[in-house]
Every structure is written in structure tokens, then in C-alpha cells.
Specification:
heterodimer, A: alpha/beta, Metallo-beta-lactamase, Chain A, seven-stranded mixed sheet, about 25% helix, about 25% strand, B: about 525 residues, alpha+beta, DNA ligase i, domain 1, D-amino Acid Aminotransferase, Chain A, domain 1, OB fold (Dihydrolipoamide Acetyltransferase, E2P), 3 domains, seven-stranded antiparallel sheet, about 35% helix, binds zinc ion
């Protein structure tokens, strides 16, 4: 007897027929379960939302006055004929994998995830399942991240050198997650951390919900960089090359993204330095995470899906690419 | 190799010219002399002896990393650089030791060339297991050749001039020719007073800028000389010591590829250097570029091809006359000497003077330019009559005034991701024209859009894929682009029956739909006119 799949892809997103809900839908639906607050996963217009409680403040900020229920990690919730629960994905604060069980069959949607603990997000926990829907933004063996501590030392070294050269270092990073992670890695004995408005807003939301984050100073039209000796600036990718950046005086730019692993992309960004630090799993991370689920079937989204599915097939999994519309934070940061 | 790696990192870490030149000048005045010589050689495109083929390197790296061949290939397709791909795929090094200077490594690699595979594989694997990060990447670059590090010949010349206190033009001349680190020394190449008498040494080519203003703004027509801009290969013909040499602009010796120039040493006096354009030529007119193309890839030329596509040098400048470097003379003077020299040649010598196009006002010249395609020319060259022959690309004296490209509006039907700097974007597209209800693919193009536009189209491709064929996505025919190109030829190998030269996306026509795209008949009409 063949059973209906636990999840299918409709023109609105990943859909669970037994529970009549979507996960991270790209068009408005009746009930949306959200893995995390990045724009490609949390979209406006749905009637009801469900997320982790840690994720809620960002969702309210980004989606406005939505009808949102929340749950802590690991709590089982019955929706129709399905049982769902959220599990830490380690991607950004509040990010989750979503486990869906229907009639004893378990599927897990990874959302975006990384396996290295960043000291800020609740660390990734593998979820046992029959079918694992995994992202693979960096699903090629050329993507292997160096340990966070090494990268932190490198970024702080760059900060020091920039100041010695009389320049203000401007570090580019996605406003939700990456920016706060970097903020925690910066050695504040060197000087204060100044922020672009987009980053300040997200940082303040996370602070408000009780996540301890080091102090930052918002750059306003009246801010004089010279009043903040030794400072480093955190800015989102969209600010690069803008008039806003032109007002900072002599600067040197750096960019923090997994894509910085590739020299070609490092050069295209036109920044002076690239740091390959990512909130997505690298090649060893993806392979370890998949193995840890015990899944037989793996569906892959975001990124090099064809290559990665073929690799998994050769490793003995029943694997295939799954066509979705995700890929919006780091996956696209560099295109936007 | 730490020194060299530091130099590389400094150059690679900035897009600004001055810090690059500074870093290189510093290196060229402090590194050991053999390393300096090798660095100049590598940065000017000279390769050490191959210790391994790229096929071997991929296989070895795949085996060591435990990855199937196809995944190494897929990775390479994304990264776009083999040396970098392999450096990233291989397991982390055990210790990150250095293993000696740049020239130590090159000596070691040279000794490996020609050894049995197991010995070469063991040596390369050993190096990979020790070298870390940048050093491993550079080691791979030394084997695979082709250092493109954003140091142009001009910047290297400037850095060398700064490091040695010599004139840039002098340095540029010294760097020309087919020296290798094995045939010369730092002292001989760069420093010594009597530059070695390399009879094959070419002069640095003078390069033109595209005309980016109204020609009237160039001043009185009398100050200018005009001629066709030929669509061939730039070449420098040297006759010295009763021998001839033919160099390409990319400083490749083409002497053997064009044996018809052997007679020139019988007719031109020793100490003659001519700058001109090599064309395939018959009946006093150029043949289509496609005929010349057949000759370019060939190291040796079969008789049949020699008869079908004989080469001709259209001479347009004289750089050395009677053994004297005359580049400092005004163009008009050099041209007069060139005319005297070529007029004396019999027709059997494949050299013709590139005709001057006299003109008294810019309007007439513009009309002449409009007929360039009839001459199989790309447009006009304008040269200031009193200008010296400059080293490299100098603004103001030489202009190319090309014809506007041909163009047609076409529909994008397939997309493929780029590599290297555009690895995460869809940048390589296949375009079609309409033929009744059908869409007939006729060209690929992958340049001409801004990064922002590529970002937009990438989003769109992801959401509008109809089918995948490996890395290629078939998309819903929706977007229309203006495809510009320089030439059009009949080609039985293509489904559409035509092939374009230098196709690129001139514009994304947001204002047009598939129904507004060009047709196969329009292309055929262009072919009939310009093919
Ligand atoms: Zn995300
Ligand atoms: Zn995502």
C-alpha cells in the first residue's frame, strides 16, 4: 500500500495534506509554519502563523500585525492528522527545523541550518526521521569552514590593521543572525562597534527578547566617526557602495559570507577582504547532519541541489532535488 | 614560498592599483634574485615545465579527497579555477610548512617533468599534504600555469621601474621576447647595460583606445591619418640577421604557423620591424575571419589550407629601420619610410601597405567608415600624424573608430550558472529567434549585463525552470534581450545555420515580449548582407 506523502510541494510551498498547513510558504496560505525569520522563509499575507517563541519578535517586526502562535523547541503540537514540533537548527537565534509526523512516518524540514555552535543560536540538534528535507546552499566539497575562533582572530586582526592604516573597517553582514554573531566575535577592547540602522534594529529586537548582546552605537546623520576612536562598523550588504557609506570617511571594507570561500566572488564583491563565515552548514556539516537523522530518503533544496543529490545517491540514500523558492539570505545576499 | 604567498595575498587583497604596484616593487627589490626573475616570468605568462597534466591533478586530488571525478568536475565548474578548486577540495594540510623559496619549488617541479606517474604523484601528494591555504593554491598555480592576478603588464613594468630606477619604456622592451628563467638571469634581463642581443625580440605593441567622443573633437583632419581597422591578428614581423620572426600581440611566436612569411627575409633588409595585421587574403581582398581562424589553431599548416587561406600582412607601421629603433619618430615619418620599403617589394612577398584613407573633413570620413563592412574591416583606425609609437595603451594618439555592432532581439530559452566570480548566478544564456511558431536557438551569450541584472535574472530562472538537463535549465520563453555582435557567418554546425562573432547582451528589453523578438528570416537577411 502506498501512502500519501507527508509533505508535497504545491505552487504555494511545502504542504502537509494530513495537517492542512504549509511550511515556509512563498505565497499566502491559511496556516503557515515558519522555520525562521529570513525573508525567503517568512513571507507576509498568511492567515495564521506558527513559529518558535524565540522567533516571534522578528516575525512581528518583519511581517507586521500577524496572527502568530508560538511553541518552545521540542513541544509536540497536533494539527489535524499530523503532529509537529520545532527543533533547533543553529542557523540564527530562534531558527528551527520542523518535524512532522503522520501515522508513524516522520519527515523533517531543516529550514536553514549550520552544525557548528556559534555561541548565540541554540545549537543544531539532529532529528531522527524517515525523510529529511535539507538545504544544501553550500553542498559542494569546496565549502569547508574554518573554526569560528580562527575566523574571529582573522577578523580582529583585520580590524587592528585597518586602524593602524588610519582606516575605519566596515564589515558587511546580513542583518539578522550574521551581524549579531559577528558582534559577539569582535574584540571590543579595540574600540566600539557602530551599526547601520538595519542592523541596529534587528540587534535591538534580539536584545529586547533577552538575548545578551554586546553594546552597539547606531550611526545617525549626526554621528562623527572621529568621535569613536578605534571603531568598527557593521553594515548590511545593501549599504555597500551607498551614499551612507560615502560619509564614513576613509574606510576599508570586509564581507562575511560563506561565498567568500571563492576567490572569484570575493573579488566581485569589490571589498578589500572576505571572510568565509557562514550560518549555513558546510560540506562536512551537511553530510554529518544527514547521517545523524538516520533518514533513508533525502530531498535537497537551496543551492547545488543536482550535484548534492547525486552525491547522496552514491552514498546509498534515496535522494532527489526538491524545487523550492528558498535561497534569500546568504544564498542570495551576494546577488542582492 | 611564504614571501611569494605574502606578495600574492597583498596583490589579490586589493583592487587599487597603487598598493599592488607598491607590494610588487617591494618584493622585486627584496626577494632573492632567482625568485624575482621567476615572479616576472610567471606574471608575464611564462610557465614552468609541466610536472603534471590537469587531468592527472584532478584525478590525484579526487583520489586523495575521496571524491568521485564528476564531483571534482562539478566543483571546478562552480569555482572556475582548477588550482583553487583542488586547493579547496584537498584535506587540510598536516602542518603548513613552507618547503623553501619559490625557485626551490620551481626547480623541484622542473625535475619532476618527464618522470613516471607514480613518482610525480607521490611528490605532488607530499607537497599537498604539507602546504596550507594560499601556498597550496599557489603551488597548484605553478603546475597549471596561468597566473592571472590582476597585475597587467603595465603595472609590472611600473613596479620593475620603481624597483630598479629604470625607465618604464626600457623595462617594457627588456621584458619582450621568448626568454625564460632558464635562459637568462635577473641581472641580464633587467639590469645589465648591454641588453642581450636577442634578435627575435619584438617591441611592445602600441594599443589604441576606442573612440569615445565625436571625431570633430579630435581637431583638424590634417593632423590625422586614417586607415581601415582590419579584422585579423595583430602581428609584428621582424627581420634581423637574415632571419624572420612573427609575433602576435599576445607575444606568441607565430613564425611556424605562417610559413609564407619565410620569403620576407630575402627581400627586407636586416634590422626591419613592421607592425601590421595578418589576414587571410585572396584576389586583393581579405577573406572572412573564419578562414583565418582555420589557420590560427594550427601549429603546422597542411598545403591545402595554405592554398585556401593564404596569409597576408597588411603593414601599417615601421618600428625599426636599418637596425635603428625609430619608434620616437612622428608617425608620418615612419609611414613614409614604410611606404618606401613596401613599394619595392615584389607581389610574391605577402606584405601590402595598409592603404591610407585620405580625408579633408570628418563627415566624409564618417561616410567612408560606414562602408567598412564592404572591405571586411571593423571600422577605422585614426592615428595622430605627429605621434611617436607608444608603449602599450596610451590615450590620445591612436583611436579605433569601430562600426556599430549588428544586433537582433532574441528570447532567452536556456540558462546555466556561471563560474568563478559569478558562481552563484545564472549568467550563461542560450537565445532563440522566432521561426513561425517555433523558437530556433542561434547563439549563446554570457556578458553584457550588470551584476544586479544577473541577480534579478537568477531569481527569475530559479522560479521559471521548465526542465533541467544537468547544469542547464530550460526556462519559460519570456525575456527578450538585444544581442549585439560583430559579424555573422554561415555555419552548418549550428541548427540555425549561422554563427555570430562576439555575441553579447547589449540590453535587457523589458519593453518587449516574445512576440516582438527577431526572426530567423531577419538573421538570414543579415547573413546575406554581411556574411
Ligand atoms: Zn536563513
Ligand atoms: Zn534560506
Amino acid at each position: 500500500m502506498t501512502r500519501a506523502p507527508v509533505l508535497t510541494v504545491t505552487d504555494r510551498g511545502l504542504f502537509c495534506p494530513a495537517g492542512d498547513f504549509h511550511i515556509d510558504p512563498w505565497h499566502p496560505v491559511d496556516r503557515a509554519l515558519i522555520t525562521h525569520g529570513h525573508a525567503d522563509h517568512a513571507r507576509p499575507g498568511s492567515a495564521r502563523y506558527l513559529s518558535t517563541d524565540l522567533c516571534a519578535p522578528v516575525l512581528f517586526h518583519r511581517l507586521g500585525n500577524i496572527t502568530l502562535e508560538t511553541a518552545p523547541y521540542d513541544r509536540q503540537i497536533a494539527i489535524g492528522g499530523a503532529t509537529v514540533s520545532f527543533h533547533p537548527a543553529g542557523h540564527v537565534p530562534g531558527s528551527a527545523q520542523i518535524r512532522v509526523e503522520v501515522g508513524g512516518e516522520v519527515w523533517c524540514v531543516s529550514g536553514d541550518y549550520k552544525t557548528e555552535a556559534d555561541g548565540l543560536s541554540t545549537p543544531f540538534e539532529p532529528v531522527g526521521c524517515h525523510t529529511f528535507i535539507t538545504e544544501c546552499t553550500f553542498g559542494l566539497p569546496v565549502f569547508r569552514w574554518r573554526p569560528q575562533a580562527e575566523l574571529a582572530a582573522e577578523i580582529n586582526g583585520w580590524w587592528r590593521q585597518a586602524r593602524a592604516d588610519g582606516q575605519t573597517p566596515v564589515l558587511g553582514a546580513y542583518a539578522l543572525g550574521k551581524a549579531q554573531r559577528l558582534l559577539c566575535l569582535l574584540d571590543r577592547q579595540r574600540g566600539p562597534v557602530l551599526t547601520h540602522g538595519a542592523i541596529e534594529t534587528t540587534t535591538e529586537i534580539l536584545r529586547q527578547q533577552g538575548i545578551p548582546l554586546p553594546p552597539t552605537i547606531l550611526i545617525t546623520p549626526d554621528t562623527k566617526i572621529a568621535d569613536h576612536p578605534g571603531a568598527i562598523v557593521l553594515a548590511p550588504p545593501s549599504a555597500f557602495g551607498s551614499a551612507w557609506m560615502g560619509r564614513l570617511g576613509p574606510i576599508t571594507t570586509g564581507f562575511a559570507s560563506g561565498w567568500m570561500q571563492l576567490r572569484g566572488i570575493r573579488r566581485r564583491r569589490g571589498g578589500d577582504r572576505g571572510f568565509a563565515i557562514s550560518d549555513h552548514a558546510d560540506w562536512p556539516g551537511l553530510n554529518a547532519a544527514i547521517a545523524a537523522t538516520g533518514a533513508e530518503r533525502v530531498l535537497v533544496t537551496h543551492g547545488y541541489t543536482d550535484s548534492f543529490a547525486r552525491w547522496l545517491t552514491e552514498q546509498g540514500y534515496d535522494a532527489a532535488p526538491l524545487e523550492t523558492r528558498y535561497g534569500g539570505d546568504e544564498a542570495e545576499a551576494d546577488a542582492s | 614560498m611564504k614571501h611569494f604567498a605574502a606578495l600574492y595575498t597583498a596583490i589579490d587583497g586589493t583592487t587599487r592599483t597603487n598598493p599592488k604596484v607598491e607590494a610588487l616593487a617591494h618584493y622585486l627589490s627584496t626577494a632573492p634574485e632567482p625568485d624575482r626573475l621567476w615572479t616576472v616570468a610567471l606574471f608575464s605568462g611564462r610557465r614552468p615545465k609541466r610536472a603534471a597534466t590537469t587531468t592527472e591533478l584532478r584525478r590525484w586530488a579526487g583520489e586523495i579527497a575521496g571524491l568521485p571525478d564528476w564531483l571534482v568536475e562539478d566543483s571546478y565548474a562552480v569555482v572556475g579555477d582548477l588550482a583553487e578548486t583542488l586547493a579547496l577540495l584537498l584535506p587540510d594540510s598536516e602542518d603548513g610548512t613552507d618547503g623553501g623559496t619559490l625557485s626551490d619549488w620551481l626547480t623541484r617541479l622542473a625535475a619532476l617533468a618527464g618522470q613516471p606517474e607514480d613518482i610525480r604523484r607521490a611528490a605532488v601528494a607530499e607537497a599537498w599534504s604539507h602546504l596550507g591555504g594560499t601556498e597550496r593554491f599557489l603551488f597548484n598555480k605553478l603546475i597549471t600555469g596561468g597566473f592571472r592576478v590582476g597585475i597587467s603588464r603595465k603595472l609590472m613594468t611600473r613596479a620593475l621601474a620603481r624597483a630598479t630606477g629604470q625607465e618604464e619604456a626600457e623595462i617594457a622592451l627588456r621584458l619582450m621576447g621568448d626568454w625564460t628563467p632558464a635562459t637568462t638571469t635577473w641581472d641580464q634581463l633587467i639590469l645589465s647595460n648591454d641588453m642581450d642581443a636577442d634578435t627575435a625580440r619584438p617591441y611592445p605593441f602600441c594599443l589604441a583606445h576606442g573612440l569615445d567622443m565625436a571625431p570633430q573633437d579630435l581637431g583638424p583632419p590634417d593632423d590625422w591619418h586614417a586607415e581601415w581597422k582590419w579584422d585579423g591578428i595583430r602581428g609584428q614581423l621582424i627581420v634581423r640577421s637574415r632571419q624572420h620572426h612573427l609575433w602576435s600581440r599576445g607575444e606568441e611566436l607565430m613564425t611556424d604557423r605562417f610559413p609564407e612569411f619565410a620569403v620576407t627575409s630575402d627581400f627586407l633588409p636586416d634590422g626591419t620591424v613592421i607592425d601590421g595585421e595578418v589576414l587571410a587574403w585572396a584576389d586583393n581582398a581579405p577573406l572572412p575571419f573564419a578562414d583565418l581562424q582555420k589557420r590560427i589553431g594550427r601549429k603546422t599548416v597542411p598545403k591545402k589550407l595554405l592554398a585556401e587561406a593564404p596569409a597576408m600582412l597588411l603593414a601599417y607601421d615601421l618600428l625599426e629601420d636599418g637596425g635603428q629603433d625609430i619608434r620616437a619618430l612622428p608617425f608620418a615619418g615612419r609611414r613614409a619610410r614604410l611606404e618606401r620599403l613596401t613599394v619595392a617589394l615584389p607581389d610574391t612577398v605577402p606584405i601590402r601597405l595598409s592603404p591610407a584613407l585620405p580625408f579633408t573633413d570628418w563627415k566624409t570620413l564618417a561616410d567612408t567608415r560606414a562602408t567598412a563592412r564592404d572591405q571586411r574591416a571593423e571600422g577605422l583606425m585614426l592615428k595622430r600624424a605627429d605621434s611617436a609609437y607608444a608603449t602599450g595603451r596610451k590615450r590620445g594618439d591612436w583611436w579605433k573608430w569601430k562600426l556599430d555592432p549588428l544586433s537582433i532581439d532574441a528570447v532567452m530559452i536556456y540558462a546555466q550558472a556561471g563560474h568563478g566570480r559569478r558562481a552563484n548566478l545564472y549568467t550563461d544564456f542560450t537565445f532563440a529567434v522566432r521561426d513561425g511558431e517555433a523558437l530556433v536557438p542561434f547563439t549563446k551569450a554570457y556578458s553584457g549585463l550588470t551584476d544586479e541584472e544577473f541577480g534579478q535574472i537568477t531569481q527569475w530562472v530559479r522560479q521559471n525552470t521548465l526542465q533541467r538537463f544537468g547544469p542547464v535549465r530550460q526556462v519559460t520563453p519570456t525575456h527578450v534581450f538585444e544581442i549585439a555582435f560583430e559579424g555573422i557567418q554561415a555555419s552548418p554546425r549550428h541548427k540555425s545555420g549561422i554563427a555570430l562573432r562576439f555575441p553579447r547582451m547589449a540590453r535587457w528589453r523589458h519593453d518587449k515580449t516574445v512576440a516582438d523578438a527577431g526572426t530567423l528570416d531577419e538573421l538570414k537577411a543579415l547573413l546575406a548582407l554581411y556574411g
